[in-house]
Amino acid sequence: MPAVSKGDGMRGLAVFISDIRNCKSKEAEIKRINKELANIRSKFKGDKALDGYSKKKYVCKLLFIFLLGHDIDFGHMEAVNLLSSNKYTEKQIGYLFISVLVNSNSELIRLINNAIKNDLASRNPTFMCLALHCIANVGSREMAEAFAGEIPRILVAGDTMDSVKQSAALCLLRLYKTSPDLVVMGEWTSRVVHLLNDQHMGVVTAAISLITCLSQKNPDEFKTCVSLAVSRLSRIVSSASTDLQDYTYYFVPAPWLSCKLLRLLQCYPPPEDGAVKGRLVECLETILNKAQEPPKSKKVQHSNAKNAILFEAISLIIHYDSEPNLLVRACNQLGQFLQHRETNLRYLALESMCTLASSEFSHEAVKTHIETVINALKTERDVSVRQRAADLLYAMCDRSNAKQIVAEMLSYLETADYSIREEMVLKVAILAEKYAVDYSWYVDTILNLIRIAGDYVSEEVWYRVIQIVINRDDVQGYAAKTVFEALQAPACHENMVKVGGYILGEFGNLIAGDPRSSPLVQFNLLHSKFHLCSVPTRALLLSAYIKFINLFPETKPTIQEVLRSDSQIRNSDVELQQRAVEYLKLSSIASTDVLATVLEEMPPFPERESSILAKLKKKKGPGALPVSELEEGKREGGGELNGGADRGNDMSAAASNASTPSPSTDLLGLRSAAAIGSAGPSTGSLLVDVFSEAGPTALSSGVNDEGFLRDLEPPTESSDSLLIEAPGESDSEDSAPPLPESDELLNKFVCKNNGVLFENQLLQIGIKSEYRQNLGRMYLFYGNKTSVQFLNVQTKPVEPLVEGGAQVQQVINIECLTDFSEAPLLNIKFRYGGALQNITLKLPVTINKFFQPTEMASQDFFQRWKQLNLPQQEAQKIFKASHGMDIELLKTKLLGLGCALLENVDPNPENFVCAGVIQTKAQQVGCLLRLEPNAQAQMYRLTLRSSKDTVSKRLCELLAEQF
Amino acid sequence: MQFMLLFSRQGKLRLQKWYVPLSDKEKKKVTRELVQTVLARKPKMCSFLEWRDLKIIYKRYASLYFCCAIEDQDNELITLEIIHRYVELLDKYFGSQVCELDIIFNFEKAYFILDEFLLGGEAQETSKKNVLKAIEQADLLQEPRHEYFNVPVY
């Protein structure tokens, strides 16, 4: 046993620990522990009053037992008694026990708080520190309530000892993280900021963590910290390595403080004051220069501390994203690290370069390292480093290198670690689609993806390849041929069978001319996979078979025989049996014409409409729909919620009082048949009010309609609504300002209705929306990407948690009252790991969503064009193409915009003209659009004319960002 | 920093410090998972890994692994040096090379030293001298208990 080095040892404790260590088995250990617990219990219960030392020893033993992983259900009271001992060690052990084993027993909390209060008031710095440490370690709400008011005073008081100040600052930080509402700096703000100037480096080191956290939440109140931080940093950076005495770490002056200063500056934009900015740029340059100097020590601690500062400086440079010179220097520095012999540095360089890749100033510089990064992906021995390399390749990918990067990622997938396959698959799928100029390349890539990593290919990926093939007739033949070849493999993944079944069912005719892929060969190939597949795939294959009967009448007898077999027509699975029965009947009684109509080729997937909506429209015809009236009535029921009226924003959401199932639900193509729950209590401050809807009820899934893909995303079980607050209203001081990227995110949705609106490390928000006339319905899917619960989601009605990995859906009904320019704001708040997350986004509702396409002939178009000749009715922009000038892509985008794309109208066939009517409740606004591409100059001229100037202007702004 | 764990090569937890509120059950789960993950890694691998939505920074000193979980925007290298500084503090306090046994038998001291160095997951005092001064002052406040000195030591 090692001699207890200092202070007073507790022999009994040491003996006990030795005994435990000598136990040969788990059972022996438990036996020894139970013996000790019984002993302690009897001592605590005994008649004889224990002296402080014994109490301390027993409490310490209990603590040891607890830390071994056993439950402790007594001894708390004795620990609390120790808190009020005037012997330091007894107090110390008491506090340690409480810190580790805090119990939310209210009686006890009161006693603990009492003891803490006494120690805080004792003016004995060691006692004060102990009490502050305990508060910081426990950090409970009860403690925040009791002490959040007192600690700021201790922190800034002139007579407080430095060590107490340090503890007070970090104690406050912990309380702020748990209960931000209780920690109010108010009048102390400026004195807290000035702690950055404190003479004692330790005080600055502790205080800056608090200031950084507070600045993130209240940047304006703390903005004076920027210049103080810059001058402090400048003094450290320019000091000689010995100036700071004990704060110099392996020849690096104050590395922790430097990193924290650089981190604080990342809460703010670049300083506006020229002198401050100049000084800061100088610091950053000095840090970059130092990286090139020979090391002052060979110790890894020296280089780690130095590089910690360097990486933090690079983060700041990236955060500012405004100094091209520094960005390129940072990139070059990281480039050197990419080949460094220290794995840690290679890892960090890859990670840091990822963010550099997204800056326009350094994107090209990052790209020059592509070979090194590919090499890292292939040769790094550590999977975490390879993952960083894959991330970086993804980040540096653009049209110029997409083929190379996708190829490398695909070949890496063959041997990739299981842990990162799924992510890699998604990345490849996204890049392949994003940069597909040549769609046969896209098809090849996705099929390869399924072949190599089929298990990791999610449904969205294979849905997407089918949507693209359906929408682009130039690739259909190629897709059929390729998928046919892929299916030849003896073992192919079920996802491949799905894609194969779907594509051959639609386009098998395009390759049927070749005897090697004649109709029967195709059918036999598909059917050879049938028995190995799951029920949903078999169902899909059955639909492919009936499509075959239509495409190739000669396969009818063979297929009918298959359908007629007992294994189909009497299948125990209801869905399969029903399909078999119905398809068999359909193929026997329907005439060729009827069959051809029913089994017509899938129409292109419009980006802006769900297939269900389209189907509904076909059924109802474009006649008058009583939707507006219904919505009107409901709005009265739910209360007028237009909180934005005073901002001149007339976008309002009508809260549907869904307590009665309304026909409008169906008109909008919703799948939830009956909605229950009533409109939440509305307050004037809500711009968009949301309510709960019931989960989906049983749906009659049309068996033989063509909508193979109609059930892409069944709605989740419940749609707990999150509180969405209006900007500029009473609650808004809590709401974060919209994220800087919110405009960019909004722009992504101008020409499409579905997709991922927002994603960070915690949360993903997906959007699906549908519009008709001046009404819309938007589904927001909140996905919790972490594995723990989000707490305190403000919901209405309350269901205040989102399970780890789970998704919650929210439905918003939208009515466009009149035209608008500003998108409604969506404010999301939830608690994660104690910290309140506050995100404000722009809801992707733009005026063009309310377009009704208008078809018209050439002469009508020009006649109307001439009528709209007032200067304010026209808006025009000339801009550079930012996404290439692929004609098909342009068409897809214009269609996605929602107006009609008119053929043969413009005398110049290169130009595009569109027409549509924006439907608002107040009025209808006719709009005409003309887009003139100039391929040579890579420029566009975009002209909008409409009967309302604000509409022309807004549409023009929106669209100019799209091409 | 969200938490710090010290565990042995055999996977025995020697010290745990949590700076975020977690239930005991969750703490045990996290510990089990991380100990397994870290012990499975080979020497020479990099000291950082992603785990859930956190970054894990770890380093091995003799038979002990020191392992910290930090958030996305936190600095990996400086955390590595936090670990090193803590090891230096333990070294200095226990005299020469600190070993696993020192921490087992004096676990309470290991916690006290950590509290002086890190509080609420942030560096409170990075000067070695100042931290040790605080601990030594506390030791001076302790009164020797003569009556126990006669208890036989084995």
TrEMBL record, chain A:
Predominant cellular place of this UniProt entry's protein: membrane
Gene3D superfamilies per record: 2.60.40.1230, Leucine-rich Repeat Variant, TATA-Binding Protein
Biased composition (Low complexity): 652-665
Subcellular location: Cell membrane; Membrane, Coated pit
UniProt keyword list: Cell membrane, Coated pit, Endocytosis, Membrane, Protein transport, Transport
Chain segments carrying region Disordered: 623-666, 702-741
One GO MF term: clathrin adaptor activity
Topology within the bilayer: Peripheral membrane protein
Functional note: Component of the adaptor protein complex 2 (AP-2). Adaptor protein complexes function in protein transport via transport vesicles in different membrane traffic pathways. Adaptor protein complexes are vesicle coat components and appear to be involved in cargo selection and vesicle formation. AP-2 is involved in clathrin-dependent endocytosis in which cargo proteins are incorporated into vesicles surrounded by clathrin (clathrin-coated vesicles, CCVs) which are destined for fusion with the early endosome.
DNA repair recorded as keyword: no
Presence of keyword Membrane: yes
UniProt-annotated binding residues for a 1,2-diacyl-sn-glycero-3-phospho-(1D-myo-inositol-3,4,5-trisphosphate): R11, G12, K43, Y53, K57, Y58, V59, C60, K61
Signal peptide segment: none
Protein name (Swiss-Prot/TrEMBL): AP-2 complex subunit alpha
Subunit structure: Adaptor protein complex 2 (AP-2) is a heterotetramer composed of two large adaptins (alpha-type subunit AP2A1 or AP2A2 and beta-type subunit AP2B1), a medium adaptin (mu-type subunit AP2M1) and a small adaptin (sigma-type subunit AP2S1).
Coiled coil: none
Sequence ranges assigned to domain Clathrin adaptor alpha/beta/gamma-adaptin appendage Ig-like subdomain in this UniProt record: 747-844
Any single Pfam family the record assigns to this protein: Adaptin_N
UniProtKB/TrEMBL annotation, chain B:
Membrane topology value: Peripheral membrane protein
GO biological process: intracellular protein transport
A GO term, aspect molecular function: clathrin adaptor activity
PANTHER family referenced in this protein's UniProt entry, alphabetically: ADAPTOR COMPLEXES SMALL SUBUNIT FAMILY (PTHR11753)
Subunit annotation: Adaptor protein complex 1 (AP-1) is a heterotetramer composed of two large adaptins (gamma-type subunit AP1G1 and beta-type subunit AP1B1), a medium adaptin (mu-type subunit AP1M1 or AP1M2) and a small adaptin (sigma-type subunit AP1S1 or AP1S2 or AP1S3). Binds to MUC1.
Function: Subunit of clathrin-associated adaptor protein complex 1 that plays a role in protein sorting in the late-Golgi/trans-Golgi network (TGN) and/or endosomes. The AP complexes mediate both the recruitment of clathrin to membranes and the recognition of sorting signals within the cytosolic tails of transmembrane cargo molecules.
InterPro entries linked to this entry: AP1_sigma, AP_complex_ssu, AP_mu_sigma_su, Clathrin_sm-chain_CS, Longin-like_dom_sf
Pfam families: Clat_adaptor_s
Gene Ontology CC entries for this record: AP-1 adaptor complex; clathrin-coated pit
UniProt family annotation: Belongs to the adaptor complexes small subunit family.
Lineage: Eukaryota, Metazoa, Chordata, Craniata, Vertebrata
SUPFAM superfamilies cross-referenced by the UniProt entry: SNARE-like
Subcellular location: Cytoplasmic vesicle membrane; Golgi apparatus; Membrane, Clathrin-coated pit
Organism: Aldrovandia affinis
Chief subcellular location: membrane
Start and end residues of each AP complex mu/sigma subunit domain: 1-141
Superkingdom, natural source: Eukaryota
Listed name of the protein: AP complex subunit sigma
Sections of the chain in a coiled coil: none
Entry keyword Magnesium: no
Keywords of this entry: Coated pit, Cytoplasmic vesicle, Golgi apparatus, Membrane, Protein transport, Transport
